[in-house]
Amino acid sequence: MNQPAVSPTLDTLFQRTLMRQPHAPALLDPLNKSRITGHQPRRLTYAEADTAIEALSAHFVESGLPANSVIAIQLPATVEFVLTVLAAHRAGLVVAVLPLLWRQAELAAALNRTAARAIVTMSKVDGVSYADLAMHAAAEAFSIRHVFGFGTDLPEGMAPLDEVLARPPGTTRAVIQDGRKAAMISFDVTAEGFRPVPRPHFSLIAGGLAMSLEADIQQGATVMSAFTPMSFAGLASSLAVWLLCGGTLALHHPFDSEVLEQQINEHACDVLIAPAQLALRLGDSGLAARMPTLRNVIGLWRAPEQVAASEAWIAPHAPLTDVYLFGEAGLFGARRGEDGVPVAVMPGPHGAPREQSGSSIAGEILLTAKGTLGLRGPMVPIAAYAPPQPVGETLTAQPPRDYVDTGYAARVDRVSGAINITAPPSGIMAVGGYRFLSNDLQEWARRLGQGALLTALPDRLSGHRLAGRAQDNARAREALNELGLNPLMVEAFRDRSGPI
């Protein structure tokens, strides 16, 4: 009897490379990890990573987490993040990624919306106690049964995972490896509000393929990922790209330019994946001399409307590939030519690589009737972005929609026929990669007290940054904590006594 074709999972891709080259380097920690988390940097081969993944996976099973349940992860870009994601998948769990910028209010909302059974975090990141944050958020989520943590000085009630990595693996669970199964849940903000976005393995792999094929990443490459991994684009550009090329993944906790250059040279990295503005900042005329091993640079644009006006890339030894990000809905890439300027993106199906005839279709770009950009394809979670049912028509079948409206204003150039993205979704701001409704600014400013001002200022690296003024700094700090706003999102609040 013929066996049905089963698409691979992320763990399948990992084990393929493990069987081929178990002693090859797999994962490299940031060089400044001791400052970030208090841990010493680690370097793991595929065999060593597999042992750690097996130990964590067994611990999740022994803790009583049922197959297909959700485990939330809020970790920095370190080896522990990669090991935890792969261990969760090996145990048959679905990973919900929680951005580091989130505080208690967002965490509690995400845990409740996904009915997460466990959360994994780090004791401290850049001096901030994420362990306490996770414990407080878990107390507000009825479904949470376990809180796991890496690091020392964990609060009472949090299960330590460092000692799990140090002991032999225990109980295993048979899991069907099928790429159609749910792999991750990320979170987006649209005009309709906060939205969980689930994805299967094949969708993540499709995102990684769209990047790696367009950028022409070679097999066995050493990939430097300097993009926060707590999103679809973050996972696709780090985990998926690494597993597809079967090479080495070096991680950088954003951002320290000097440490990043040191890592690239020390590890002889072939590929750099980073926010596009950071990549352009590095890509001056001296890039070849400073980082001679680089052969590819992938720049991720959180604000895709800025690509067309960006400066030319002037490092021909390492071509730049622009990757357009549309929240959690999807992405597409376009490699720049020899002149270094962004290439025209045409509507319709696009392959990977884009300019190669007969290449596999990575997705499709279209212009909606509302004058906004639409996406369809294997990486686009159409069901997650289905429009809300009209009031009073709950029993009426709605016409099927096979694309996602990203909300980005766009038009077709009359001369070239290319798509021009002109503006971000109306009413939505992005701060450090975190999206929120513009109307929330008014509520936040009201909570800061009389005479307070809160506004979002354009920022080339992070999209926008929050800035404002407050007459009462103590009240402003208290209100920020009540609102769950991470201080990293806020540039400064000033009165006569200076910033808070």
Care to describe what's here?
28% of the residues lie in helices and 29% in strands. It contains 14 helices and 28 strands. The strands form six sheets. Strands 2-1-13-12-14-15-16-17 form an eight-stranded mixed beta sheet. A seven-stranded mixed beta sheet has the order 9-8-5-3-4-10-11, sandwiched between helices. A five-stranded antiparallel beta sheet has the order 18-19-20-21-22. Helix 3 (46-62) packs across helix 4, helix 5 (104-114) crosses helix 6 (130-139) and helix 8 packs across helix 9. The chain is globular. Belongs to the ATP-dependent AMP-binding enzyme family. It comes from Bradyrhizobium campsiandrae.
Number of DSSP helical runs: 14
Which secondary-structure class do the elements indicate? alpha/beta
What spatial form do the alpha-carbon principal axes imply? Answer: globular
Major sheet summary line: 8 strands, mixed
Strand-residue proportion: 25-35%
Percent helix range:
25-40%
Q: State the low-pLDDT regions, or none.
A: 459-464, 486-500
Give the strand line-up of the largest sheet: 2-1-13-12-14-15-16-17
Overall radius of gyration: 22 Å
